[in-house]
Amino acid sequence: MSTQRIVVTGATGFLGGALVRHLLATRPWTQVVGLGRDLERGRALQAQGIEFLAVDLTDEGAVHRALRGADTVVHSAALSSPWGRREAFVAANIDATDHVVTACIARQVRRLVHISTPGIYHDGQPHLGIREDHRLPARAVNDYAATKLIAERRLFERCAVGGVSALALRPRAIFGPGDSAILPRIAQALRSGRLRRIGADDCTVDLSYIDNVVDAVVLAMDASWRLNGRVYNISNGEPVAIWDVIDRLADALSLPRPRKRMPKPVALALASTVEAFYRRFKPDSEPPLLRYGIELLSVDMTLDITRARDELGYRPRVSMDEALNKTLSELARAEARR
């Protein structure tokens, strides 16, 4: 019997890296291959015993070669940012996904798990318990969400025709030790003293701890063929008040809690002005204030994960309190080393 080969794109990213390390530790009978472009992180994965291939997913030929012999592919690579040039998002999120799908069909891959995003639901309005069939806004909130939605739809259409079993996950706000996107960015705003309380203190959101998302990916890898073409919301299943989390972060880092307030309409108007300036004069630099960022801190948004529970057997094993304690402790240690 041949050894199962699992290929993970985006292995030098937060989720992809956590996934390949988990697979190495729990599935010694498999061959785990990580694809990525960050050579330094790739060498770190190799040092841990993970096969790493430096691959640019916009190079279709390189993708085909990397997927030779693959049984399962997890496509977690993406350009995930609230700001950037549209052509960069198209290349990283649409073209690259097309290349992965083409290679999966050509190589007759058994299962493709695609990491999508619940950002496609975002319309600036409060929503609690969003289901996978939620009506999507006429216009995506940003180019990241727009290109991820196109990629997800094209992936399902092509896999259905090409005979590849595909599932997609939409994990909400992944965090944990090693993340550089969510809590570390808020921590930087706290250090600068520029963070203002916007909206209601009880603004409720969903977050997803990294270990739980890895569990969801593994469940999707092993899911029944009957679930082909299904998409799943993923979160910790424990909505939190985002400003309570921010206050806990400030306390953990021995930084002042944000006290000053800014009315949401004023914040949004200011962000619109800043975005317009950057779009015209500094398009390659992310503005210090974004409408999307303001809405993430002031608009209720939680997901219904019933489908993942019922069909995949998903059960978040790390509670939100434990997840925050682990993450904040790591951030506090990093702060002490600064």
Show the helix and strand layout.
Blueprint: E1 4-9, H1 14-26, E2 30-36, H2 39-47, E3 51-54, H3 60-66, E4 72-75, H4 86-106, E5 111-115, E6 127-130, H5 143-162, E7 165-171, E8 174-175, H6 183-192, E9 204-205, E10 208-209, H7 210-222, E11 231-234, E12 240-241, H8 242-252, H9 264-281, H10 291-298, E13 301-303, H11 306-312, H12 320-337
Parallel strand pairs: 1-2, 1-4, 2-3, 4-5, 5-7, 6-13, 7-11, 8-10
Antiparallel strand pairs: 9-12
Pfam family, one: Epimerase
GO molecular function: aldehyde dehydrogenase (NAD+) activity
Protein name: Nucleoside-diphosphate-sugar epimerase
CATH topology description of one domain: Rossmann fold
Largest sheet: 7 strands, parallel
In CATH terms, what is the architecture of one domain?
3-Layer(aba) Sandwich
Strand order of the largest sheet: 3-2-1-4-5-7-11
Calculate the terminal CA-CA distance, rounded to whole Å.
Answer: 51 Å
Low-confidence stretches: none
**Gyration radius, rounded:** 20 Å
Q: Quickly count the helices.
A: 12
Structural class: alpha/beta
Beta-sheet strand percentage? 15-25%
Helical fraction: 40-55%
Number of strands: 13
Shape: globular
Q: What is the average of the pLDDT values?
A: 96
CATH level 1 class label of one domain = Alpha Beta
Give the name of the CATH superfamily of one domain.
Answer: NAD(P)-binding Rossmann-like Domain
SSE sequence, one letter per element: EHEHEHEHEEHEEHEEHEEHHHEHH
